[in-house]
């Protein structure tokens, strides 16, 4: 009986070991796949912010670091609690790399909200596809700014914000590494719905102006070409647009000219036909005689000749 139990236990152990051996690579692959999903990273950060809020009492308007799981060891995040009315009236002078001006409004009934700032660090590559879709490459860590409100069941829900006054400023001076000499970066903003917007940086600085929450980074146009490719691409686009407009205008001018020539030809033809009809009628009513080298209409003779008068007189006698 003991031997049978030992054999069963040994078999169960081998089966368990085999299952673990298969499950560990699958779990590692699944974790690596999940880390490539920007949405999942946001969800993990949101859960951490929710756990922070339900912990011990925190002061309003004070920034606290978030404790993230080991799978996000390359991400640094901060959280702060604000009153919605105070945020709208006064804004936030500095929240990490972000500066929120007065006038930021939130949609909904939230009286308090959580602002979460994240620096994705070595996980910024999850946004490479967003940059590559426009022909750019990321040249800075990706920074995220998201606002959450408190849900009825004690959770948090992402809020929709409305920037009504000045734009939110994102200063990359502390987060971005040294760029190549002559490189002209641009600002890439990835909204929460996945839409991408690329704008110019503030002159003389690495500061971006954004009008919504989301993720932001500095980008360059083309690998190894610095900022020159961005300017060149813009110039090429302008030239293509100018050539297309010129060709369209020339085609319209030619078409208008052809229509005008056709109308004039029809009018001229009608005038010639009317003139020919008038001349035919006049030549039929009046005889045309040549007087020197000039053609002139003349009527037929209608005067009674002397011979006709003499004959009529003799007949009367």
UniProtKB/TrEMBL annotation:
List keywords of the entry alphabetically.
Answer: Membrane, Signal, Transmembrane, Transmembrane helix
- Decide whether keyword Transcription is in the record: no
The region annotated as signal peptide is 1-29
Which residue ranges traverse the bilayer? 241-266
Which InterPro entries does the UniProt record give? DUF1191
Which GO CC terms are listed, alphabetically? membrane
Protein name as catalogued: Legume lectin domain-containing protein
The organism named in the record is: Oryza nivara
Taxonomic classification: Eukaryota, Viridiplantae, Streptophyta, Embryophyta, Tracheophyta
């Amino acid at each position: 009986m003991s031997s049978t139990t030992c054999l069963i236990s040994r078999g169960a152990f081998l089966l368990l070991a085999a299952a673990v051996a298969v499950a560990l690579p699958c779990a590692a692959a699944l974790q690596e796949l999940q880390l490539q999903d920007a949405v999942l990273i946001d969800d993990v950060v949101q859960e951490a912010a929710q756990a922070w809020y339900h912990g011990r009492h925190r002061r309003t308007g004070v920034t606290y670091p978030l404790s993230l799981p080991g799978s996000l060891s390359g991400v640094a995040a901060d959280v702060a609690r604000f009153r919605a009315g105070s945020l709208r009236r006064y804004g936030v002078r500095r929240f990490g790399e972000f500066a929120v001006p007065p006038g930021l409004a939130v949609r909904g009934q939230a009286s308090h909200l959580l602002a979460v700032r994240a620096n994705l660090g070595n996980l910024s590559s999850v946004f490479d596809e967003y940059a590559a879709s426009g022909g750019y490459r990321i040249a800075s860590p990706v920074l995220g700014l998201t606002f959450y409100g408190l849900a009825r069941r004690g959770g948090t829900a992402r809020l929709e914000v409305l920037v009504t006054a000045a734009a939110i400023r994102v200063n990359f001076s502390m987060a971005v590494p040294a760029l190549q000499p002559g490189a002209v970066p641009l600002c890439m903003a990835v909204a929460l719905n996945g839409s991408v917007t690329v704008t110019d940086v503030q002159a003389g600085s690495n500061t971006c102006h954004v009008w919504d929450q989301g993720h932001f980074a500095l980008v360059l146009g083309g690998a190894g070409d610095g900022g020159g490719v961005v300017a060149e691409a813009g110039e090429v686009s302008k030239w293509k647009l100018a050539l297309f407009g010129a060709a369209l205008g020339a085609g319209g001018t030619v078409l208008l000219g052809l229509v005008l020539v056709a109308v004039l030809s029809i009018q001229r033809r009608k005038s010639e036909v009317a003139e020919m009809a008038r001349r035919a009628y006049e030549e039929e009513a009046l005889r045309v005689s040549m007087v020197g080298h000039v053609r002139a209409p003349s009527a037929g003779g209608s005067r009674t000749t002397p011979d006709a008068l003499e004959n009529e007189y003799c007949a009367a006698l």
